[in-house]
Amino acid sequence: MELKKRNPFKTVCKTVGIILLSLILLFVGYVAYVLISYHRIGDQPIAVEGKASGTLETGTEYTVVSYNIGFGAYESDFGFFMDGGDRARAWSESRLDNNLRNIARVLREADADLYLIQEIDTDSTRSYHIDERPYLVDALDGTAYTFAQNYDSPFLAYPVTQMFGKARSGLMTFSKAPVTAAERREVPVETGFTKFLDLDRCFSKQRIPLANGGELILYNLHLSAYTSDGKIAYEQLEILLSDMQSEYEKGNYCIAGGDFNKDLLGDSSQYFGKSDIEYTWAQPIPDSMFDGRNITLIAPIDEANPVPSCRNADGTYHEGQYTLTIDGFLVTDNVTVVSATVIDTGFAYSDHNPVGMRFILN
């Protein structure tokens, strides 16, 4: 019996077809995984941990510090892929550990009464699944603290050369005075594909009793940045402002702080010069958002020696890089601000510098 000869061309086509089909099935399966895994955390109470023995009083000056630590990865030579750089993860586990220790040291040396810290990872590919909270808890011993999970994203297989992976990250708030209750408040995010990059968003709300029987309501925030036009952050801010106004009308004192991802100086280039690349996401906050409200935006600046609070992480920190101030505070009218400044670390440990505010509860 004569054996039928194989057609090499058909064999190659069949092999290529099987490979292409496998890749298509893999891609469809991955997209399904991302869509199914996506979820929002929602409003929920959050636990208060630690012990604080201090008391906040009216007529006394206090200090609050806010710091976006950039999940401990943004050393001065780090460029993040979503900002135009080539990194999706910290350089190495050892460098991450050393950087987190320096961040903890900076916060401890600030010796503030209140701390608002953003972008602390608990179990993320980008930070080698290290729980970063203990670094801060150990450094700020003797405080009450809360953790509000900001987002919990599925594994993002991008960029291909160094996949971003999964990310679990949140906000930590520390107080030298006891915190009686705290909650996570969800804010809107975009509904299109951008939501997979911007992840989830929230602010945390802490209640601190005062010696006079009133309460200080302390908010920690990190508004959206990677959105289509940056306007979703205004919707997020609107919810925060409404909540602050409501608490103020009840007789409480309100302070909010964090990363607004907006140009708090209106036009930061007037202080720090034009950058070599222009971006549009960091728009100023319209004055109209504060109309009819007893709330003031506090943008930290020393006009004699202006220091930006943020650099665009498109690569190693360099002259001409886009710098601006997007970290700051909001206060109600019963809070007097003594000063607000940027703590200059030279962006050694994060793409943000810490910002501080001295204030008095009237």
Describe this structure in words.
With 362 residues, the protein is an alpha+beta fold. It folds into two domains: 30 residues; 320 residues, Deoxyribonuclease I, Chain A (4-Layer Sandwich). The chain contains six helices and 16 strands. Helix 2 runs parallel beside helix 3.
Q: Please estimate the helix content.
A: 10-25%
Arithmetic mean of pLDDT? 89
**Count of distinct structural domains:** 2
CATH first level of the largest domain? Alpha Beta
Spatial separation of the terminal alpha carbons: 103 Å
* Helix and strand pattern: HEEEHEHEEEHEEHEHEEEEEE
Q: Notable features of this structure?
A:
362 residues; alpha+beta; Deoxyribonuclease I, Chain A; 7-stranded mixed beta sheet; 6 helices; 16 strands
Question: How are the SSEs placed, and which strands pair?
Answer:
Blueprint: H1 8-37, E1 44-45, E2 48-50, E3 61-68, H2 93-110, E4 114-121, H3 133-139, E5 144-156, E6 165-175, E7 181-186, H4 195-198, E8 202-209, E9 215-222, H5 232-249, E10 253-259, H6 269-272, E11 295-298, E12 310-311, E13 323-324, E14 327-332, E15 335-342, E16 355-361
Parallel strand pairs: 3-4, 9-10
Antiparallel strand pairs: 1-7, 2-5, 3-16, 4-6, 5-6, 7-8, 8-9, 10-14, 11-14, 12-13, 15-16
Helix pairs in contact: 2-3
